[in-house]
Design brief:
Pfam families: His_biosynth. One of its GO terms (cellular component) is cytoplasm. GO terms for molecular function: 1-(5-phosphoribosyl)-5-[(5-phosphoribosylamino)methylideneamino]imidazole-4-carboxamide isomerase activity. Belongs to the HisA/HisF family. About 25% of the residues lie in helices and about 20% in strands. It has about 140 residues and is of the alpha/beta class. A seven-stranded mixed sheet has the order 3-2-1-4-5-6-7. Strand 4, helix 2 and strand 5 form a beta-alpha-beta unit. Helix 1 packs parallel to helix 2. The radius of gyration is 15 Å and the shape is globular.
Length: about 140
């Protein structure tokens, strides 16, 4: 059986499919495969109506908060939220209706895992590990990761 995990990637408030590795500090380097004319809330409702569980919304850079809030209103308690999650904002996304928060780069300052940062996120979540997803995505560079 194939398991489908629906995703809503947001960049500058729009649903986009971005070419992997092109999102960095130089916005001129950004390449997209697709920009949807429909808002994030449309996809959240589509996933809800089709009972597609495990969906997540990822904020790729700033300017996405409103679109995420709209998606969470369309399917409260059923979307995971990631992108820019820190100990300072993790709780607020759960309070806004996220089922879980996804933490990635915040846990790796200077490309090194920080137990102190993980502990801070968990403290912000009241120690509720069921509300935390740690994304350990990595990309091969030459002979390393």
């Amino acid at each position: 059986m194939t398991r489908f995990r629906p995703c809503i990637d947001l960049h500058a408030g729009q649903v986009k499919q971005i070419v992997g590795g092109t999102l960095d500090s130089a916005s001129a380097a950004l390449q997209t495969n697709y920009v949807s004319p429909l808002p994030a809330a449309h996809y959240a409702a589509l996933y809800r109506d089709n009972r597609l569980e495990g969906a997540h919304v990822i904020m790729l850079g700033p300017g996405n908060d409103e679109a995420v809030h709209d998606a969470l209103q369309a399917w409260p308690g059923c979307l995971q939220v990631g992108g820019g999650i820190t100990d300072a904002n993790a709780r607020s996304w759960l309070d806004a209706g996220a089922s879980k928060i996804i933490v990635t780069s915040f846990l790796f300052p200077d490309a090194r895992f920080s137990q102190a940062r993980l502990d801070a996120v968990l403290e912000a979540l009241g120690g509720d590990t069921d509300k935390l997803v740690i994304d350990l995505s990595c990309r091969r560079e030459n002979d390393g990761w």
